[in-house]
Amino acid sequence: MAQTVAEQVGVRRSPVEAYLDGLLARHAGDDSGEVAAYIPELADVDPSLFGICLATVDGARYEAGDSGARFTIQSMSKPLTYGLALERAGEEFVRSRVGVEPSGDPFNEISLHPVTGAPVNPMINAGAITCAGVLVDAVGDPLGSLLETYSLYAGRRLEIDDAVYRSEGETGHRNRAIAHLLRSVDVVSRPEAALDLYFRQCSVAVDCRDLATIAATLANGGVNPRTGLRAVREDVVREILSVMATCGMYNGAGEWLMSVGLPAKSGVSGGVIGVLPGRLGIGVFSPRLDEQGNSVRGVAVCRDLSHDLMLHLIRAGERAAPPVRSLHTVAERQSKRVRSGRQQAAIAAAAMRTAVFELQGELGFVAAEAVSRALVERPEPVELVVIDLRRIVRTDRGGLHFLPALVSYLHSHGGELAFSGNELELEFDAAAAGVRMFDELDTALEWCEDELLARAGAAAYVTSVAPAQHQLLAGLTAAELDRLLPALEPRHARPGAVLVRAGDSAEELFLVVAGRLSVYAPGLGRRGRRLATLSAGMTFGEVAFVERGARSADVFADSEIDCLRLPYSLLDRLATDDPVLHGKLLRNILGVVVASLRQANAETAQLSR
Amino acid sequence: MAQTVAEQVGVRRSPVEAYLDGLLARHAGDDSGEVAAYIPELADVDPSLFGICLATVDGARYEAGDSGARFTIQSMSKPLTYGLALERAGEEFVRSRVGVEPSGDPFNEISLHPVTGAPVNPMINAGAITCAGVLVDAVGDPLGSLLETYSLYAGRRLEIDDAVYRSEGETGHRNRAIAHLLRSVDVVSRPEAALDLYFRQCSVAVDCRDLATIAATLANGGVNPRTGLRAVREDVVREILSVMATCGMYNGAGEWLMSVGLPAKSGVSGGVIGVLPGRLGIGVFSPRLDEQGNSVRGVAVCRDLSHDLMLHLIRAGERAAPPVRSLHTVAERQSKRVRSGRQQAAIAAAAMRTAVFELQGELGFVAAEAVSRALVERPEPVELVVIDLRRIVRTDRGGLHFLPALVSYLHSHGGELAFSGNELELEFDAAAAGVRMFDELDTALEWCEDELLARAGAAAYVTSVAPAQHQLLAGLTAAELDRLLPALEPRHARPGAVLVRAGDSAEELFLVVAGRLSVYAPGLGRRGRRLATLSAGMTFGEVAFVERGARSADVFADSEIDCLRLPYSLLDRLATDDPVLHGKLLRNILGVVVASLRQANAETAQLSR
After folding, report:
1. Chain segment A417-426, per-residue pLDDT in tens
2. How far is A252 from chain B, CA to nearest CA, in Å?
3. What residue spans define the domains of chain B?
4. What ipTM is given for this predicted complex?
5. Cβ B258–A277 below 8 Å, yes or no?
6. CA distance B371 to B369
7. What topology is assigned to B29-309 in CATH?
8. Which residues of A touch B6 (CB under 8 A)?
9. Does A525 touch chain B (CB under 8 A)?
């Protein structure tokens, strides 16, 4: 990997890392609490270890302190196993065996439902052993599946710390009692196998980076932000995080949700994971525990992060960027088809019947509602709607739900809908719903303009002009035309033919007298960015006339076309041979360039609104 | 108000309203449950009434069914009074008298803390009476304050239904017992006054629209989205919604959070409010209650809304639009100062040392982290950073926190930061931190380019040129210059002078030979949108030469300037009097326009990336 700026200039820490360093310093002096001592492997840890790691849903990771120190995952495994059980055995089955209510009790309280005997939630030991038992029954290779899943969360191959596993097994009398109690009420069928899996899952070795990555995977809807691999289904993530929000930290569910507001889980090894859904994951490690069994500094760091960075789950004042990035009519946002003045006027006159939405972020309810509202509130019925989805990174049923209703709404007054730029699986049959799909916004805009012209009874373009009527020959006398026209070489081309290729030496202007052609940014042929579509009466090559050198774009015939070629050398000669004619031609060329400039300036003004 | 499209074309319901109609139809057949009957006013309600209203944080409101039917607010008043108590008596005081833990008990259970005797949360009657008692002690006119606050939430003057109030007072034996019990443990000091206020608050008359607006006010951080008036502080909203999330619906806190995931509160009159923070508020009314005292259809509607529209509080997969709307260098995003070719080249050569961020939405941690990361990951140190805040609608400490660190980070390698377009109170002393502030992105870009040129040892612009060296006179022979120059009228202007005003008849080209001038979109003088700044050697009036007619922009002298005026009439005469000279001038004009077109096309391509 290339050196970063920080490394080059000797500034070692980014502003975010500098913040984490400060956070570490703020709490490093707190040596209250005691390390867990029920097995020697936990008791022997250096109690001063302290690491913080923060990982975002788009793959960044920031660390401070002992973020590489190893410890065992312990109870932070519980949300992961709960998710795996939900995936493999189904929500209904799991919910019949373990509840989702906070107990308010310490982690090792038994907390079974007074009637059913089921553990009240999967974050206490009884609930976690039940989940392990569900896996033992439902999965062929429960340990293999579990390790594979944990590894997907962490983005690396995780392994069991055998010494810890053996100690846990030897000293876990209370957990053994719980397992057999669960067997007695038929919540767990094979208590010893469930216990063994539970002891193994608690003994998986991790570091702070792993914790933050696991948390970020949950924050990211189940997909590891660094590997792009899915560790758990998104609907299951919601259940995991809901339970973590109320049951993860043993203390009062209401107090944690109010004061920290992060779904979280602690482990007796001194780790804490915290999740801000859709944003980031936090991993903290510091072995000294408070009376509830939570890392003292881990809890303090979560509190401060939530407060300093405003990471609370409930952020009523939050204002994300709006889903509608821009909203225009086709008078303001035009296609690259160059229109004659008359067609421009016809489009402008009817433009209020069009709406061009560029959406960004997520196509969910908020976006659907914004589009729907903008259409309903317009003073005249909107007949042609283009929704550009190029910047949509995700759709959900909250948005897709409204597409059929939106189409019906438009159809009810003769309106039509088109999408452009979509690259996602839509889970919406656009064709069946009568919605047009375009690869590019540009072509959708062209459709919209053409439809508007058709509805106004106007042609979309001029199909042919007499050479003498061409824009570049305006104002010439009959005698001048007689002199010039024989010098212009006709060029015919079939649809799809290449008229000009980027890099070719530029030697002439083309006067289009019949058909249509399109200009594309070089390199990708007709899949490239369209720069212009021209029809009869229009000109190209006027920029290269000034700049000379090589062509900067590819030009393709869209139909059978007829052009007249006006060599630059001829124009240059006319400057001395027939300066009056030369002056007329230059004025006409100037007129073409000024019209393009007007158009480009209007587009710039709209785009930077 | 003007007719909406829907009214004009006879489509009565928007897609969102159509969805609510469907939701109403889906549940209207469910007549399970019983209306509350403990006072005649509640027992006498039409049990088939059913209304739904949804209000967004940006002021839209959608209704279906009996959304105008009146009922009393009952326990839905509890979150509002809790918030008022927190504001008036302080969090610490209130928290010493009422907890925040879910009880899992029905609304009329007493649920006091076993040690302190304090009610476990403010959503049960004991907690709500305690809050009323806090107001009675802390506020001069508790009823007046309460009604005023409730009215701010609803956006209209709310009033008490006296008949209900009298009945509540006559039959509220259990609540009276609770109040005196609270007196016995010193949680409430004046039980009768507290009770009276509590009965009155429960008797405030509302409809579904009010409920949705109240909920939307909470969703909007405490500001009523329709009136823009604040009903409650934003930090208090977080506490209200946290408690509603776990304690609002009497049933299991974990189950509600998992399956519906909306902070909510029900009332015995049959109303339910639900809040999706930052998004929307829901109000439902249907009088039949389930065994827990929640509206049967109200709960069902909340569940369906959450599921259908993906309104769950925990949305890990959610992808809001990114806070960085665009990121460019100054080679890609240039100011409106027109640069000479040489200066363009110097800017382009050093452009990778610049970063221009256009942010959108909220300047919080996510935005700050994205900016910080983009700078740290650049392959060379970024020396000049512009952050455009024009589209930032809100800042919070999660973002502001990082500004000093960002400045330090940049200063450590000689970098500088500028903001543009900010219209918010920043709570960050930019001047003290050495951050430049510009009104417009355009002027910030110009600063950035000028700094880059200065660091490269290049002049920002050409201060003067000999007339013969002017771009428009390139290629003219000495004889031609001798003929032409005397015909060009010199024009001198002082800084700030108006050279051209939009609407003036356009009659000449201006050749700038000394100083600088700027072109602005018409109407606002120098506060308008800058279209260009030109310096010596440049030209203006070339577009109007082609189009004729009136000037389309205002032009002001930025410094002492000297121009030469080339009348269009002279150019026109030259076409016949001296066509060779005419041709040369036209080619030069064409060169100026083509350069502008190139620039505009590059800007368009960048902006629409």
Report:
1. 999 999 888 8
2. 6
3. 29-309, 324-455, 467-607
4. 0.91
5. no
6. 5
7. Beta-lactamase (3.40.710)
8. 376
9. no
